[in-house]
Amino acid sequence: MAEERDNESAGARELIAFRIGEQEFCVDIISVREIRGFASATPLPHAPHYVTGVINLRGTVLPIVDLAARLGFGATEPTARSVIIVVRVGQQLVGLLVDAVSDILTVTDDLLQPTPDLASELARTFVRGVMAVEGRMISLIAVDNILPQMDVAA
Predict the structure, then answer these.
(1) Helix or strand or coil: residue 120?
(2) Share of residues in the chain with pLDDT > 70 (%)
(3) Which pLDDT score, from 0 to 100, does residue 11 have?
(4) Secondary structure (DSSP) of 78-105
(5) Checking DSSP bridges between strand 136-141 and strand 23-28, what pairing results, if any?
(6) Which residues, at least 6 apart from 73, have a Cβ–Cβ distance to it below 8 Å?
(7) What is the value of pTM for the model shown?
């Protein structure tokens, strides 16, 4: 019995759930560095449409990605509840602009269902899977695919 409980806790992970419009998404808490209130960003010329700009995070230039725009939902209109989730993507820190953080979930891997086959290839690029938690459908975001793949000049 105790061994069974150990196996369950070994497959558990903590996720930060957040809202974009009426939909809920989550990211693995391991990639999250901090959650901070919304701060307007300084725009960058010729940046992709989903990069709102950069902010100064304790001396570090932090690019801000409007996650709604990146996922194809249209640009976010920031409110007092809007937050920036600072995540590590590879070696870079990136701020994800979302409408609100809802909670921290502890889930087991068996709750995560694959992204439906009906979803486009682009949707499967950003969504690692979908889970039903407490009557809510929550999509797990693939943080490592949020930034475009950069061509490295040799």
Answers:
(1) coil
(2) 85
(3) 76
(4) --TT-EEEEEEETTEEEEEEESEEEEEE
(5) parallel
(6) 20, 21, 23
(7) 0.85
Query: How far is residue 90 CA from its own chain's centroid?
Result: 14
pLDDT at 149: 60
Distance CA 106, CA 81 (A): 23
pLDDT in tens, 119-152: 566 667 888 889 998 889 999 999 988 877 643 3
- pLDDT tops 90 at residue 54: yes
Structure tokens at 107: 């889930």
108 Cβ neighbours under 8 A, 6+ residues apart:
8, 11, 12, 13
- Kindly state the tokens that stand for 108: 């087991």
The token duo for 130 is 């979908």
Cα(41)–Cα(44) distance, integer angstroms: 9
